[in-house]
Amino acid sequence: MSKNNIDTTVDDIFSDAFVSDSIQSDIDFNNLDDIVYNSSSSFDISEIADILLDSIDEYVFITDTTTKNIVYINKPLCEALDINSSFVGTCHELLCGRDTPCPDCTSNKITDDSIFIINHLNSRLHSNFVLRARNLELYNRTYTINVALPKTNQALVIPFREINKLNTNDILAPYLKLYAENVCYPEVQIYKFIEYFGLELSAENCTLFEHIDLSKNISYQNYEIDPTLNMIRTQIWVNEDLNVPDDYVLVPKDIVNKAYEERVYKEYAVDDALYVAIPLEFDLNPVGMVFIKNPNRDYLKVLEPAIKTIQRLLTGSIEHKKMHMELSNVASTDPLTGLKNRKQMLVDINNLSLNNRIGVIFLNVNSLKEINTEHGTKFGDEILVKTASLLKQLMPDNRNIYRIGGDEFVAIHTAIDETEFCVLSDMLKAFMLSEKGFSVSVGTHWEKSGILIQKAINLAESDMYTEKKTYYRKNHNCSRYRKQNDAILKLIEPDKIKSYIEQNCFKILYQPKFKIQNDVAEIAGAEALVRLVINGTVIPPDDFIPALESAHYTYLIDYYVFETICKRMRERLDQNEKVLPVSCNFSRHTIIRTDFKETLKSILNKYSIGYDLIPLEVSEHTNTSRYQDLIEVTNNLAEEGFNISIDDFGTAHANIYSLADLSVNEVKFDKKLIDNLASENNSKITTILGVLITMCKKLGIKTIAEGVEEKEQSDILKALGCDEIQGYYYSKPIKEDDYYGKF
C-alpha cells in the first residue's frame, strides 16, 4: 500500500464474519477483487485499498510479524493517535507505549491463516477495544493484519433485571447462538463466550486458561509457557469501563494451580478479590479453566443451572480449536519423524535471519537408498526416526530442527557463540561417526549475522558433502563409489599435479579449425585441449578442472599446456616444417595472477615463438566480480602483442559488451548457437549470427564457429561469412601427430 510500501489486496483478510453486527465494517471486503478487476479506471490496487481502508471507522494497521514494526496505518487510526501516516516504529510502542512486545501479542498466536481475537487493554486510544488479526505471507515475509474495533456499542445481552424470570433454556439461548454463529472460528467462539460471561455477570474480567500437555505442546509452540503453571492464559475479556494496569488482569499463580488440582466449580478469595473457577474437562481429562473476577453473586446463582451446558460448549470450542491447530501443524510437520519440514524451514528462516550468531548443522544419512533396497523401507524409516531422535536428544532446547528431504536434516542454532558452536559440532560429528548400525555425514557452518543464514545453510551443506565423499571413498562396495574420483580429489595438491605432469598423465589433443573456400576445407589452426589419463582411464576436463579451479591450481595445467605447444612449434620450426596458430584456454584464476603476462612472455622468449601463433582464449562475463581485473590484464596483453580470443561468445548478454571493453582479436561462437542453425525455425538464429558476424567484420575481429556437426550448419556459416569453422563435421579432437600429419 502506498503509505509504507506494502502493495497487496485485502481480499479474504477481513472477510470473516466473526464479530457481532454492531462492530462489523460497512465495507464488503469479499468483493474487493471484483471492484478492482471490473473497474475501468486507471487506479492502482494499492490506491483503491487505501481509499477503502481510510473510509471505514475501524482502525487498521499492518505489522511485520517478526520485528513488530508498523508498515501501514489507515487514516482513522492516525487521527485517533494524532500521528501522520509516515510513523516509524513498533505497534507496542505506538499503541501501548511499551519498549517490548505485548504479552498477548496476537501475531505470536496465529497459525497459518487462522484468526486471533483479543480484548486489548491500555492503549493510547484511551478506550478498550477488540483486536482481531490474521497473518499474511508476502514477498517471503510474514505480516499481521490487525483490525481494532472500538466497542462503542456493547453486544446485546439479556437484561439482568429479567434474568430471574427466565428458565434454563432461555438463559442458554444466547450461548447456543454464539456457538452456532461462530462454529467455523473456535477462537472467536471462545472469546465471545467469556465476553458474554463477563457482561452477564457484571464481572471485572473473565479469563480463560488452557491446559497444556508439555509432552505434546507443538500446537502452542508460539506461546510463552510458564513452567510453574499447568495451564497458560489464552483469552481474556476485561470490562471496558475499567482503566487498569496489565498486572490487574493476572490471576495469581497459586490460585491457578490450586484450581487446576481441585478441578471443581469453586470460589477463591484473594485479598479483596473473588475469583470463580469453572473447570473444563473432556473425557475426564483437563482441558482448561475459566476464572471470573468479582462477578455479581446474585446473577451467578441464577446462572448456575446452565453452567454445565456452558462448560460443555466451551470445552467443545477448545477441542475444536486444538483440532484446527493440529491440522495446521500437519502441513508444516514431517509425519515420520515429527520434525518440522522444508516448507516450515523456509518460513522460519525469515524470522531467524533477524538473529545474530547463527550456527547451521546439515546432516545426510549415508547409503539410505542401498539400505532400503537391502533391508526394506521400514528399516530405512527406523534409521530416519532414530536420527531425528538423536538430534532432539543432543539439542533438547532447539526448536529449529527440520527434515528437509528424504535423508537430509537441518538444525539451526540462534544466539550461539562460535566457540560453543564448534564444540557442539565436533561432539555431534564424533557421535554420528560412532557405531550405531548406520552412518550420517555432518556439515556445519557458523555466521555472525543471521542475514547470512541462507549462505550458512549452503556452506553447511557443502561441508556435509565433503564428509560424504570421504565416506564413499572408504566404502568401495557402495554403488556410488568411483575409484577414479580418488585420483581427482588428490589433484588439489600442487605436488601431485606436478607429479602427474612429470609422468605425462596430462595429454594434449588438437581440435582443428578450418577455413572454407570454394567448398574446400583448408586447415587454419587448432585449439589445444587437455585430458587426464590415470592407469589407462581417460578423465574428461569436466571431472577434474572444477576441482582445480576451486583450489585455484589451474594455472599449473594452463602453463604446462602453453609451454608444451610452444616447445612443439619450436621443434617443427627448427626442422623447417610448417606451423599454424594453436589457441590455448586460460582459466580466469590464471589470467588474474600477477605473474601471468611475465610468465607467458618468458615461455615465448624461451622458444622464440611469436605472439600471433598462440591466441589466448578467454571465457568471462561482465557480471563477475573480477571483470575489471580482466579488462586491465587483457588490454595489457594486447598492447604487448598477444591475440585475445573470447570463447563461448553469445551465451550471455554480457559478451556483447566484451567487444567494447576488451582488446579482442577474435570471437568464438558458442555451440548452443550453432546447434539451432539446422532446426526448422532457424531464421532468428541465422539473422542474429549474421548481424554478429557483420559487426565483427566492421570491428576487424575474426569469427570462429565451434560445435559444427552437420553440413547444413557449415553451409549457413559459410554463406554468412564466418571466417573459421570448428567441430566434429570436419574433425574431432586428434593427437598431435595426426594434427600435424594433416598438413
Automatic annotation (TrEMBL):
UniProt cross-references to InterPro entries, sorted A to Z: Cyclic-di-GMP_PDE-like, EAL_dom, EAL_sf, GGDEF_dom, Nucleotide_cyclase, Rev_trsase/Diguanyl_cyclase
Domain EAL, first and last residues per copy: 490-743
CDD domains: EAL, GGDEF
Domain GGDEF: 356-482
Entry-linked PROSITE patterns: EAL, GGDEF
GO molecular-function terms, A-Z: cyclic-guanylate-specific phosphodiesterase activity
UniProt xrefs under Pfam families: EAL, GGDEF
Gene3D superfamilies: 3.30.70.270, EAL domain
Protein name stated in the entry: Diguanylate cyclase (GGDEF) domain-containing protein
Organism name: Succinivibrio dextrinosolvens DSM 3072
